[in-house]
Amino acid sequence: MRKILLCHGLRQCIFVLLMLFVITNSALAQVTIGTGEPAVEGSLLELKNLENKTGEEANANKGLGLPRVDLTDVEMLYPMFEPGYDKSVQDEAHAGLVVYNVNEDLQDGKGKGIYAWDGESWVFIGGPGKILELALSTDQLFLWENSPTGEVTLTAKKDGLAWEKSVEGDIVSTFESVTNGKVSTLSFTRSETVFGDEIYTFKLVDKPEVFTQLKVSNLNLVLSKPIIRVGSGSVDGAINSSSIVTAYGGGSANWEVFDYDRNAFNWTKEPKNVNGHLQFELGVAKATGVVRGNIQVRHLDQPEIVRTIVVEQNANYRLLPPFDYLVMEYGYVTPPSDGGKTDIDSATELMKTNVAKIDGKVVGYFYLNELIVDNKTLLVYPGDDRVSGGENPYADIPNLNTVLQGYPESSTQFEFGMSARWTDYGNSTPLTAPTKITIKVYKGGQMVIDPKNDKRFVNMLDGKEQMPVLSFESDPKDVRVRQGSDPIISKAGYRKLYTPMYKLEYDLIENTGVLIPWNSFDE
C-alpha cells in the first residue's frame, strides 16, 4: 500500500517544497566534507578540516580511512558480491573501486595494502605488501680481489624462526652468521684459490618448503700464460685460443678486450673475444727480432678486474698445429768430414709441468732411454746414432695428457727443453759447431723403430710410413764441442757441458706449440 504525504495547511506545504529544492541542489553540487568551504573547482568531493588553506598548504590534520576489506582473489569482487555473481555486468561497472586489503595471503596478490579494481582485477597500489617468512636483502653477491668480503641480511617473519643452510657448487667463500631477533647478518669471505659460483639455500627448519637462495660469485680473470709468442701471417701470426683468458664467476662469466697497442704491430685482425676464444692475427713484423705489445682484457661483471696480455712477435717463431707425436731431431747443418766419427749427444726434458716425477727428467745419452710415469711412456730416446750423426727423440702427447690429468697441481702450459753437445766432430776439434733441430709433428699413427736404422723412429699408419703434418728446421745454433779436458758425460752437470738450443712452449688444452730460442738454462 502506497503512503502519501499530505500537507496540513498552505504554510506547511510551502516549507516542504523549499526543503526538497535545497536538498536537490545540494545533491547536484560539489561537496566539501570537514568544513563549510566550497570544494575546489575540479573536485566533486574534497576532504579537509582546516579552513583558509590554499594551494599546496596542508588543509587537514586527519586522513581518509578506507574500508578495510578481506579480499580473497584478485580477479573477484568478493566480498562485495557473493561467488557466482554476474561478472559481465558488475566487473566493469565497479572500475575505480578502492579498498584496503587486510588479507596477507590474497591469491595472486601482493599482500596487505591499497588495491583498486580496474574493471577486471584488483591492482596493488601500495602498502606493506606481502611479508615473506624468509627474505634476503639481495639474491646475488659479487666478491673479487678488491672486495674480498661482503654482507647480506636474512630476515625472518618473526623472532625465533630457526633456519638452516645448504651449499651447491664450487666452495668459493667462507661463511659466518650473526642473528639478532628477526635479522641475521651473513658474512662472506672469498677464497683466494677457488673461483666461480656457489648457491646458498636457506630454509626454515620447521617449514622446509619455505626457502630463499643466494648466489655468491668469486670473480676472477686468469691468464694461462704471461706471454703469447707468435710469428707473422695467417698461420704463424694467428691466435685462436680458448685457454689464454678464463673468466670465473658472475652472471656472464665472460670477458672482453677493451684496449690494445694499436701501433705495436700490423694487426691484420684486431684482438677480440669470439665465443670465449681470444682471436687476432699479426702481419709482417714492424722490426727485426722481438717486438712486444699489450692486449688488455676485463671481466664483464666487474670491469675493474683487468689483466694485461703481453704479445711477443718474432718473424722466426713457428706455431705448431694440433698433434699427437712431437719429434725433435738434432743434427748438423753441414756434414763434417769425419770418417763416421761425428756424434751428437742430445738432452731432452719436460719443464714447468709442476709434477716432480716429470720435470727435469732427461732422456738422452747416459741418461734415461725412456721417461715413464704411471706406466705411461712420455719421452723416448732412440739411442746413440753414429750412422746419421743425429738423434730424434719424441714425445707422446696423448700419454702426457693422460698422466697430467691425474695431478691437479699440473700446469696445462709447459715446455720441452732441447740441449746438446758434440762429443766428436770430424777430424778437428772446434769449440762449437753449427747445429739445427728439425721439428716434425704427427697426427695419429704410431711411433716405431725405423727398419733402416734402429736408432731412429718413424711414424707408421696402416702399415705405411706416414709423413708429418708439419716439418721445419730451426735456425742454426752454435753448439759446444767436447774438448779433451771435458768429461764424457756428467749426470749431475750436463747443463755445464751442453748448449741450450730451443724450447717448445706447449699448450695442452689447445694441443699447439711454438718453437723459441733457449738462450740460457736459467730461463
Automatic annotation (TrEMBL):
Keywords: Signal. It comes from the Bacteria. Residues 1-29 form the signal peptide. This is Uncharacterized protein. It comes from Myroides albus.
